[in-house]
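Forwarding the complex inputs:
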Amino acid sequence: MKPATTNSDQLHGTLDMLVLKVLDNGPLHGYAIAVRLERMSKDVLSVEEGSLYPALYRMERRGWLASNWAATDTGRRARFYKLTKTGRAQLDAETASWMRLTTAVADVLNG
Amino acid sequence: MIALRVALANVRALFRRNVITDEIREELQFHMEMRAAEYARGGLEAGDAQREARRRFGNPAVIQDRGYDVRGGGMLETIVQDVKYGVRQLRRQPSFSIVAILTLALGIGVSTALFSVIDAALLRPLPYPHPEELVTLNVEEPRPNEEAGSYAPSMADIRVWNTQTAIVAYAGTGRVDGFVPLIVDAGTPQRLNVGLASEGFLETYGAFPILGRGIQVDDTREGAPKVGVLGHAFWRREFGGDPDVVGRTVRIQNEPVTIVGVLPAGFFNGTAVWQAKQFKPRWLQNRGSGEGVIGRLRPGVTLAQATAALEAVTPAGTTRGPSPVASRVVIKSMYDEETEGFRATIRTLSLAVGLILLIACVNVAGLTLARGATRDVELAIRASIGAGRGRLVRQLLTESLLLAAAGASLGVLLAYASLDSLVALVPLSLPPNSPVAINLTVLAFALGVTIVTALLFGLVPALRLSRAPKMISSTLSVGGRGGAPLSTRAGQWLIAIEVAFALVLVTGSALILRSFARLVSVDLGYDTANALTLEVEPLDQSLPLRRDYYLSLLDAIRKLPEVASAGAIDQMALKGGGSWGFPTADTGVDIPGFQRSVLPGYFEAMGVRPLAGRLLQESDRATGEAVLVSDTSSRRFFGGNAIGHTLRSSDKTPRHWQIVGVVPDIRHGGPLWNGDPEMYVLPDPAASASSEMTLAMVMRLRDGQSVPRERLKQIADSFGPRVLVGKARSATALVSESVTTQRHRMLLLTLLGAFGLMLTLVGIFSMTAYAVARRTREIGVRVALGARPGQVVGAMVRDVAWPVALGLLAGLAGTYYATQLIKSFLFHTKPHDPATLVAVVVVLAIAAFLAAWLPARRAAAVDPLIALRSE
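Prediction (whole assembly, two chains):
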């Protein structure tokens, strides 16, 4: 039971970090986020694309994202997400910790 | 901040469920359409593109639900679910719910009602602006080789403090003078409360006149025109709220008093007029005039600062002339002074009410536990389809809160309905200006009690029962009837606890009851049967006129055919008070004691015979020199042989007396008497105008006769001078009034004790009844195997007997401490009165046995065949 939780936490964490990273360049709607994620990593949304949305809502609740309805290029109504101040801080913190982890792993591997 | 936002979102989401689901649906729809368009651009057919987009997306319904859980409402919605489910559960077992709710209603209702009294008495006893600035002031004069004398400050002290320091905002002296005869213009004389006040007294309380002016220094000089300020209620009632009332007069004790102002509403509602107190110039320096001095400190001044500042300017002189040591000023907070008197009573009542509340909690906990045993199956099933332990605990606690809330609503209604009777019963003289009411503070308290109660009685069962699903398989396979071990032990503990609480409570009530019985069976020294008293007072203050009036009235009363004998005594005597005299005996010693004015015939009317010598006769009135002393006086000052001794008064008007008889000690003021000596004197034939005499007529009626008050009033009014005729009261009524506080305390504590006992018995009864119901099959098996009915019932009762015995033992230990609290209320009764303790233990044991035996009997009636088939 325990390892599974850790895995899914890790997965959540990775997904969150990637979404924050994607939104760092400007507001996007859900589908656009999915497309960018796909380009960055095949795995994160491999199971079902829809699971992106509960993750978005969760991050919005935590105050990392803000959203509003706006028109797309083609004139359709869509919900756009953008990074908040807290979200940016979160992204910085996660990036830093990720870097520390990878450096540490690299150090170990390089012996 | 985030927590707040989440909470708001939750609440909003509850009402906006549709808006949110629509938004989510639209967003997901948009996503799938975009993806399908993408596939279509890649060359797929429209239908295939949609299908592929859908497949890639996952199940939209599930995603939508998960999204909704995150976005809105999740938590709140489960709470609503829990509540709905809880209400269904409670309705499924109405007998359980009704007993639990009534029990809680009693517990919470009683505590809420008492709290409303505490609120009035302790939380807001001083209903004046900034009560924390109010203080009482006293002066202590240190003396060499002697204890310091503590006095009320003189007017000179007060005026120096007021003018020479910046510490005191206002200070003054005054008092409510009790009922004095008061006539409004030409109206009917009434006895109303009149206050006497120096300047600064009303202002200290923050009572500034709404019309006219207050009492000023000039009004307090001897010989100044008499002025007074009207109380608001009196002004509305007698003057119809006349705005031009200033300048009119009222007559107080037959003296005209000019109205100079009207006080605001809500200030001492019971006092009709505050009259300016007048000081003779030589009295201005007098300390210890018997009336308290109050003051209002300026904001932010501490007691220590005030003491130092006032001591620095206090005049050097003392009551005994110049002194080398300066006087000390003693300042106390008025709050402490006011509440000191009723803290003991409030503590006792709080303990009693707290015990009732605890018993109620224990009871409901026991019921919940017992009922829970039959819910094993339900809980096991819920656990097996995925409810975590936290979820089950929450569900069970929600049900507890529901019960507590229902009980509390009913309880607050009960408290509200019984408030007036409670206030009439509370053995406290509650502050006159802060009425007892169910206000917001009290409601907040009730809410707090409800939550604490729900946790108290709900948490233990919730934690125990939520453990049940660990035994899912066994529970389900035995059909839930194997749950007994889960709750029997805990139930027994609960019975022990509530029996212990009940013992403490009932012992307290029994002690107070016994003490009261002793109090009212005290020999009063006179015959209360057929004795009737009537208070009459001529409004004219001149003594010869009053004396002659009383004599004529007495003659007229004696002529009534219903009256066997009649006399009169100082009115104060009937209230337990009186004036104190210090005559000197021919033996050279002073004999202090109550000096009571009587008219001949008094002792005959009271049914009192002399212990030695004779009673007073009409012929003694010519000289007024014959005097009687009480038994105590005779023993204390004359070795029990007082007859023939002479007394000399050291008053302004010297008198000589000769002791002609000794009468038994008479408890004029009722059974509570502290053994003061008494002497009975006739009116002085050479009376001066300054002495006072206000008598009550006392008559002994012939058996079975009565005289209506109207008839007596008619007679009293028929001699010329205007008189004020009070109530006609039997001696029995007077005695009963004298122990009102004690009676109320007794009634209240007996009532609380009865509640506690009742709740405990209900608890034992219902827990046993549940045990029997739950163990039907086991009993069936035992009966089938040959157990006799007596054995079965015995086993059930034995399960209760041990905890009851344990509870009684623990309760005895608790009683030892708890009864110390009521020690000061007990009359000729020890807090550890063995007879009372034994009686209470025996009664409780028998009652507990019955409470267990009645439901246990049903076990014997179990038909083994039906019991076994019931599975």
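Chain A has four helices and three strands.
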